[in-house]
Design goal:
Number of strands: 7
CATH class: Mainly Beta
Distance between the termini: 13 Å
Shape: elongated
Largest sheet: 4 strands, antiparallel
CATH topology: Immunoglobulin-like
Helix content: under 10%
Length: about 120
């Protein structure tokens, strides 16, 4: 990914500025987009789902896959290993289920979407 260059307010917009915007909103095959997620929530029984929608900058590129890890915080409380679903052009859902009741379940990590 190219380094982003800040455009000054009121400055003339150049073709390279427009290209920079397009490259952030539209990914080519083989490119990736990365970020972080955090999940936290309580449960009063096994099988509860804690989830969040993760928005991506891309709005028109079809993603091929997404990978997540728990490098920021391993599953705690009664959180099971997190997973993803509903991978769309604008984002995806990350979630975990619980194995029992607990007021403080959570996990956090990094995500990578592959186009």
């Amino acid at each position: 990914m190219a380094t982003l260059v800040r455009v000054s307010t009121g400055a003339t917009i150049n073709a390279s500025d427009v290209d920079q915007i397009i490259s952030e909103l539209q990914h080519q095959t083989g490119e990736t987009e990365t970020g972080e997620y955090v999940l936290a929530g309580g449960s009063n029984a096994s099988g509860f789902v804690v989830s969040a929608w993760v928005s991506m900058r891309s709005r028109v590129s079809t993603p091929a896959s997404v990978t997540i890890d728990t490098s920021i915080q391993a599953p705690s409380g009664n959180a099971n290993t997190p997973s993803t679903n509903h991978l769309l052009e604008s984002g995806f859902q990350v979630f975990f289920t619980t194995s029992a009741g607990n007021v403080s379940n959570g996990c956090a990590g990094l995500w990578t979407v592959h186009f």
